[in-house]
Write a structure and sequence with these properties.
- 2 copies of one chain form a homodimer.
- The first copy, chain A, is an alpha+beta fold.
- Chain A folds into 2 domains: 78 residues, Winged helix-like DNA-binding domain superfamily/Winged helix DNA-binding domain (Arc Repressor Mutant, subunit A, Orthogonal Bundle), CATH 1.10.10.10; 50 residues, Ferric-uptake regulator, C-terminal dimerisarion domain (Dna Ligase, domain 1), CATH 3.30.1490.
- Chain A is 31% helix and 22% strand.
- The first copy, chain A, has 4 helices and 6 strands; from the N terminus they run H-H-H-H-E-E-E-E-E-E.
- A 3-stranded mixed β-sheet of chain A has the order 4-3-6, with no helix packed on it.
- The first copy, chain A, is globular, with a radius of gyration of 17 Å.
- The two termini of chain A are 33 Å apart.
- The interface between A and B is large, with 41 and 41 residues.
- The structure holds manganese (II) ion (2 copies) and zinc ion (2 copies).
- One zinc ion (ZN) binds next to loops of chain A.
- Chain A binds a DNA duplex through helix 4.
Chain lengths: 142, 142
DNA sequence: TGTTAATTCGCACATAATGCAGATCAGCAT
DNA sequence: ATGCTGATCTGCATTATGTGCGAATTAACA
């Protein structure tokens, strides 16, 4: 299983090929997202970006994240508490959320489509998103 | 399968037994929630309530919903878009969200715990919440 | 009926995210 | 290399959703 993520170089040509410009701000965010497994918030990325590029605007961070999401290069996660999180891993995967530390971890689930669901008549499900709530290893009380 | 919901009368004694008072505002909300399958927002309940009790405060609606959630008599749902929704059905159930009309429908899923998950080492999952994204019957193009 | 702590309500405040517009700049044509 | 032009950036205002607070009110009980 190879993670379904784009390198900054790939994102650069992706943006250019659609008439979007590639600015230093965007290149920085491409780099901060690449390989990022933390499911960061916009604020967290803004804080990181600000250290490397003082003066970058939070507005620009949001703008770029929205652009990436529109291109399908970023999953947008709405956890049950806290602000929106962004996931550069656009694999078909799910998440485990620790109710102690709040962190999100990737989870791969097999045969999700085999789930026997009794639901609304005529509803055509295109995808299932699963969030496992529990306690992560670090937060287990000894 | 009987829905795991409390009647207004049951909620009344539930509140009183914990030292919470039962006001006309709360009784109205108990009634508006009973059997309500729409997964309403606070604003939607406020609008309904306002017709029957002009002058009721949105603040009071939030207060009562939070109290019910604290008692475990209401599930709080954070859909991927839009504001918080409240679910008087506290069964172990899941949801199907129509990407056209945005409505949430109840879904019952068997053997969720049989899902083979490859996830973070040591994570102890207590519950899985599944959201099926798709298109509901009403929104299918003929 | 009186007491008292819980509740209601209106308003201020908080937080997350978007709308807007002038200054700036990336990408392209020349 | 230079200039053009629409996309972008930034700061600020604004929206959307919800919470904090406190004076006035009221449910529950003695
Ligand atoms: Mn992920
Ligand atoms: Mn439900
Ligand atoms: Zn944890
Ligand atoms: Zn629909």
């Amino acid at each position: 299983m190879v993670l379904d993520v784009r390198t900054p170089v790939e994102l650069t040509s992706d943006f250019r090929s659609r008439g979007l410009k590639v600015t230093p701000q965007r290149q920085l965010l491409f780099r901060l997202l690449y390989g990022n497994m933390t499911h960061p918030t916009a604020e967290a990325l803004f804080a990181q970006a600000s250290e490397l590029m003082p003066g970058i605007s939070l507005r620009t961070v949001y703008q770029t994240l929205n652009d990436l999401a529109a291109l399908g290069e970023l999953q947008v996660l709405h956890p049950s508490s806290g602000s929106t999180r962004f996931d550069p891993n656009v694999d078909d995967h799910h998440h485990a959320r620790c109710r102690t530390c709040g962190e999100l971890h990737d989870v791969y689930v097999d045969r999700v489509q085999d789930l026997a669901m009794r639901g609304p008549v005529g509803f055509v499900a295109e995808r299932a998103n699963i969030v496992f709530d529990g306690v992560c290893a670090d937060c287990q009380v000894g």
